[in-house]
Design brief:
Radius of gyration: 23 Å
Number of strands: 10
Strand order of the largest sheet: 3-4-5-7-6
Shape: globular
Order of helices and strands: HHHEEEHHEEHHHEEHEHEHEH
Low-confidence stretches: none
CATH architecture of the largest domain: 2-Layer Sandwich
CATH class of the largest domain: Alpha Beta
CATH topology of the largest domain: Heat Shock Protein 90
CATH superfamily of the largest domain: Histidine kinase-like ATPase, C-terminal domain
Largest sheet: 5 strands, antiparallel
Number of domains: 3
Strand content: 15-25%
Distance between the termini: 61 Å
Number of helices: 12
Structural class: alpha+beta
């Protein structure tokens, strides 16, 4: 049996990133290695400067070594996002695969541009941190805060509604100069995408449900944190294509995680909740409504979305996904009546 050294090393890095404890025994079990051979891989990675260890053999804890860490604060006046990319970020990432560099180029410049043109900030700190497994770029500002800005621009009752609007896509407070696609596509190209502003934290991570939570200490302005594996197979063109009309190449499809509309354990029962979800959906041709994590919905909520909205917008296709049996029955009941 041929042992793939790179695969073993990569799995070891993932174990260390997740916990760091008991890595040797876990690695040995995963690949059918002796403890001695597994520890030899870890010692080799430590010798190469990729990881570091602390503690005795039985209680040893491994950590990832930060290979690159650069940070700089910028004044927004006259700042060009592509200059930040070319002079600060690209030199630290240019040895990565082309598809990964392309994603970072797109995501970093979009987030920096948002801070320059929308935040009303005095300073924009940018930081890149890289280890052997993944890279992170963080873009912050000390402006109004993205959720409050959207809340005021759209006359929303609650700043949490701003997050629901963000995840739909095609949202901008400056439609003459922006398409509102940057955050939507950046969040879906990254392995992890975080926004903190005020007391709200939004997280989108590949393969997991979106999270909206309140945080104890309020964030001044906005903080965006993006993470991507250094060997990510994701292709930016594919991300765009997943949400585009194949004939017109336009941003035409979106996915809405409805659990983001459930504030503080509320159930989705009212027509007003449904109308908030339906807001701006006329900009799309297909909308997937993701019911993951929702046990039930009210008749009025379902009727407003699946009968009233559909009747008013016959060219827009609403597609419920991940619906629990009780949710599915309510939707079918409304659809049958229509």
């Amino acid at each position: 049996m041929t042992i793939d050294k790179k695969h073993i090393q990569h799995r070891a890095l993932e174990l260390i990133a997740a916990d760091g404890k008991g890595v040797g025994p876990k690695l040995a079990q995963l690949f059918g290695l002796s403890r001695q051979v597994a520890n030899g891989y870890l010692q080799g990675m430590a010798h190469d400067g990729l990881i570091e260890a602390e503690g005795s053999t039985r209680a040893r804890v491994y950590r990832m070594v930060v290979l690159r860490d650069v940070a700089q604060s910028f004044a927004p006046d006259g700042l060009e996002e592509d200059r930040v990319w070319q002079e600060m970020l690209l030199p630290e990432l240019k040895d990565l695969p082309e598809n990964v560099v392309d994603i970072w180029h797109y995501g970093a410049t979009e987030m920096i541009n948002n801070a320059i043109e929308h935040a009303g900030a005095e300073t924009i700190p940018v930081r890149l941190v890289r280890n052997a497994l993944f890279s992170e770029i963080r873009v912050a500002d000390d402006g109004m805060g993205i959720f409050v800005k959207i809340q005021r621009a759209l006359d929303l009752v609650d700043a949490r509604e701003a997050i629901l609007e963000l995840v739909k896509g095609k949202l901008t407070t400056d439609p003459d100069n922006h398409t509102g696609e940057g955050i939507f596509f950046t969040s879906r190209a990254m392995d992890e995408f975080h926004i903190e502003s005020g007391r709200l934290h939004f997280r989108h991570a590949a393969g997991t449900a979106d999270i909206l939570e309140e945080i104890e200490t309020a964030t001044v302005g906005t903080r965006v944190r993006m993470r991507l594996a250094n060997d990510s197979p994701t292709d930016l063109t594919t991300v765009f294509d997943d949400f585009a009309d194949p004939e017109q190449f336009t941003f035409d499809r979106t996915i809405i995680p409805l659990r983001l509309a459930q504030y503080e354990g509320q159930k989705l029962v009212s027509r007003s909740q449904a109308r908030r979800i339906a807001h701006r959906l006329e900009r799309f041709r297909q909308v997937e409504l993701d019911f993951a994590g929702i046990d039930s919905i009210g008749q009025a909520f379902a009727d407003e979305l699946f009968r009233v909205f559909v009747k008013a917008h016959p060219d827009i296709r609403l597609v419920p996904v991940n619906a629990a049996p009780t949710v599915d029955r309510m939707i079918r009941r409304v659809v049958r009546r229509s």
